[in-house]
Specification:
Layout (H helix, E strand, L loop, with lengths): L12 E2 H8 L2 E2 L8 E2 L1 E2 L9 E4 L6 H4 L6 E4 L13 E3 L3 H12 L21 E2 L4 E2 L4 E2 L4 E2 L4 E2 L4 E2 L4 E2 L4 E2 L4 E2 L4 E2 L2 E3 L4 E2 L4 E2 L6 E4 L2 E4 L5 E4 L4 E2 L4 E2 L6 E4 L4 E2 L4 E2 L4 E2 L4 E2 L4 E2 L4 E2 L4 E2 L4 E2 L4 E2 L4 E2 L4 E2 L8 E3 L4 E2 H27 L1
Parallel strand pairs: 4-5, 5-6, 6-7, 8-11, 9-12, 10-13, 11-14, 12-15, 13-16, 14-17, 15-18, 16-19, 17-20, 18-23, 19-24, 20-25, 23-26, 24-27, 25-28, 26-29, 27-30, 28-31, 29-32, 30-33, 31-34, 32-35, 33-36, 34-37, 36-38
Antiparallel strand pairs: 1-3, 2-7, 21-22, 38-39
């Protein structure tokens, strides 16, 4: 693989060490000392690279694969060329992700701009009443407001804004240009460049001379190990809190309205919009560009398809899709019927033109 220099290859991990780190089986002990330095897709993996496959669909790419190792399910081992060592895994996608984190830890958080990210730049503005623990890094142009508290090992990117009274836990990363206001963050939180956390939500009451702004005096609570993508916005609560649960991952350009409560370990993809006061359970997955109405409840483990319009509650464990969103199989059945009727109509019109 040709490396660009942004994320250079690792110094090297032997397959034996990697197998022990992942808790997987190395199919051939003779390859224990093969060195892995980076990750790559199957089609262009070369010496020192490791890749993974999930199905037989990769068979054609495997014919020319030059990887130093492949992670796969035991049932797929017979498809791997004999010259490529194999790590047998029950969860190859997850183990590949863990491998990437081991080989390229610097790619797991927003990029730092100084040689020593655990220092406070003289070009940053840190209020005298702010409390910063040891090894906090603050890049040039960042502003830390009065009474803010930032935990050990946290990094604040260039031109980031940390508002008065904000509390940020330990080992967090706040990307460049991000703003964090009226918020409490747990440990291990990652906020990418340009995200906006804690600004006032969209609330107005009609008056005789137009719309009257409703004050927003709540907070944003972000629990441990949450990751929030670039240019995502999370509004503070009107009077209560907007809450993002532990381990939840939010993509770029997502809009989360005031008083929304999102559970633990959810996954929300790019350009999703969630209106105010909606409650989302644990383990919910929401596809890109879906829109959720306000004041509804999404049950634990529910899955919502991309571009869906969710107007009403969704029970726990259900899969919904479409506009308006309905149970997945209903949506697929209706879509198939529409396609069938459309095909029949096109065929009829074509016959009429021929006549």
């Amino acid at each position: 693989m040709e490396h660009t220099g942004f994320f250079p290859p690792h110094g090297g991990v032997s397959l034996k060490q990697l197998a022990e780190h992942l808790g997987v089986e190395l199919a051939d002990e003779a390859s224990s000392e093969v060195v892995i330095r980076s990750i790559a897709p199957v089609y262009r993996a070369g010496e020192g690279d490791i890749c993974y496959i999930l199905s037989r669909k990769n068979r054609v790419e495997l014919e020319t694969c030059k990887a130093s190792a492949i992670i796969c399910l035991p049932a797929l081992k017979s498809f791997i060329p004999e010259h490529i060592p194999v790590l047998l895994s029950k969860k190859p996608h997850t183990d590949f992700a863990l491998t990437g984190a081991l080989l390229h830890p610097q790619a797991m958080r927003p990029v730092t701009f100084t040689s020593n990210p655990a220092t406070i730049s003289p070009a940053a503005v840190v209020d005298a009443t702010a409390k910063l623990e040891a090894n906090v890094g603050v890049e040039p142009g960042a502003i830390i407001g009065a009474g803010a508290e930032i935990g050990e090992g946290t990094y604040i990117g260039a031109n980031a804004l940390i508002g008065p009274g904000v509390k940020i836990g330990r080992n967090c990363s706040i990307g460049g240009g991000a703003s964090v206001l009226c918020a409490y963050l747990g440990n291990g939180v990652i906020i990418h460049n340009g995200a906006r956390i804690g600004q006032d939500g969209f609330g107005y009451a009609p008056g005789p001379r137009g719309m009257i702004k409703i004050v927003q005096i709540g907070r944003v609570i972000i629990q441990d190990n949450v990751e929030i993508g670039a240019n995502t916005t999370i509004d503070r609560g009107t009077m209560d809190d907007t809450v993002i649960g532990e381990g939840t991952k939010i993509d770029n350009q997502v809009q989360i309205g005031h008083n929304v409560r999102i559970g633990r370990h959810c996954a929300i993809v790019s350009q999703v919009g969630i209106a105010g006061s909606t409650v989302i359970g644990d383990g919910v997955q929401i596809g890109g560009q879906a829109g959720l109405n306000g004041h509804i409840h999404i049950g634990d483990g529910a899955q919502i398809g991309a571009k869906s319009g969710v107007m009403n509650n969704i029970p726990a464990g259900e899969r919904y899709a479409g506009l308006p969103a309905r149970p997945l199989w209903d949506f697929l059945r209706e879509s198939a019927e529409i396609a069938k009727r459309s095909g029949a109509r096109d065929k009829k019109d074509g016959s009429a033109e021929h006549d």
